[in-house]
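Table 4 source record.
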Amino acid sequence: MTKQIVVLSDYERIYPSSPKVAELEKKGYSITYHHHKITEEAEVVSLLKEADIAVLIRERVNLSADVLKKLPSLQMISQTGGGAAHIDLDQAEKQGITITLTGSTSRPSVVELTFGLMIACARQFTPHQQNLQQDKWIQYPGMELQNKRLGLLGYGKIAREVALVAESFNIEVVAWRPTGKKGDEHISILELEEVLSTSDIVSVHLKLVPELRGILNQQHLNLMKKGSIFINTARGALVDTKALVELLESGHLYGAGIDTFEEEPLVQNPFKNCPNVVLTPHIGYVTTEVLERFAEQSLQNILDHDLKSEMK
């Protein structure tokens, strides 16, 4: 019997042109693509009710326990990215659904965006652009990055590459690891409070796990140096947005670059009255190159799983 693969929310229409499609079709798979935005659980169930395998692009589609219970045919979820917080993993395990991830294929793009946001904040791109759009020629003094201290919250693969780039700017790098020092670091690993209170730039690179949700609360954010910059390309739910906005509006923080928000898509912008803030709509992973790698690896994961099943 032909196995059904359903790709959801491929907005950029990347998947049909992947070279892996021909390999899967040769093995007898049928692939259906849906390129539109899906928000209702009923539609998710309708689109996946005949699927043996679902391919999900980042957090664009949620698979709650209620949704999974209505998908008895689903055998595998090929998820892009390195996390699956939007999938009820307990229910998936109960149903015997295999979940695969593509891992950090977006790492270069996230690192580049992190530095883009740093530079945009340090040189006040947002107020300069706003003034020029109003035919005003005002030159605000910026901040040099060299000889500053960059505090990384988290020290995984992305943060390590950020640290390498920072060294080329002659930036001192320190970090906090939730798991503590492991001995493989080439930088100083400090307590969270010390990183926040001594860094000129704080950049968040933490995974959104239950124990870290809301870790950057008002108490922690208030420790940041006056005149410092806050960057978040990780997850919005790690941060108390209200507390961050207060620090920006009061002028305590020099600026902020935010790519992720507590609720996405962002309906009401809480930063609209904040000066020197650069906002992007969770585009850390959204480059053509990353999406092509997502497609290739997520489809390859299906082929690999198929091969393992044949060998049993």
